[in-house]
Specification:
With 141 residues, the chain is α+β, with helices and mostly antiparallel strands. It is 23% helix and 33% strand. The strands form three sheets. The protein has a six-stranded mixed sheet. Strands 2-5-4 form a three-stranded mixed sheet, with no helix packed on it.
């Protein structure tokens, strides 16, 4: 997704608060939104969307890290656990994470209309289907 208002960042340090400075695999934030970049190049404040690719860290990503992101006000949190193929995507609603529903095998971002994820394509590594689904999402807005 290319947009002048959208910034994507991988493995950047995110200063959420004095106790938490994770380095998510991917995060997305809007220019002028709740995330800023400080003089050292760190992201300050909760991004609109964080994605984690989890293997051995899955219990941490689905548990404690999820709770930290929820408390910090991260807008959406997506975890893809690579060993079992588990995919969870939550969005913040009234300061609590709720599931982003799966409709016909596809999850759709609330904060980023057009950002659609085909879960079966992700699990199977079908990059063409991932791109086709994303394009359908982008065409829908």
């Amino acid at each position: 997704m290319k947009s002048p208002e959208l910034v994507t960042s991988d493995n950047s340090t995110v200063l959420l608060n004095s106790d938490n400075d994770p380095q998510p695999d991917l995060c997305m934030y809007r220019v002028g939104g709740q995330t800023q970049v400080n003089d050292e190049g760190y992201l300050v404040g909760p991004p609109e969307q964080i994605t984690e690719i989890a293997g051995s860290s899955a219990s941490y990503d689905f548990g404690e890290k999820r709770d930290v992101y929820e408390a910090a006000g991260v807008g959406e949190y997506l975890v893809f656990e690579t060993i079992e193929g588990r995919i969870e995507w939550w969005r913040l609603s009234d300061s609590k994470f709720v599931d982003v529903p799966v409709v016909d095998g596809v999850r759709q971002s609330v904060l980023f209309p057009g950002l659609w994820l085909d879960e079966d394509a992700l699990r199977s590594g079908d990059s063409q289907q991932l791109v086709d689904t994303l394009q359908r999402g982008m065409d829908s807005v």
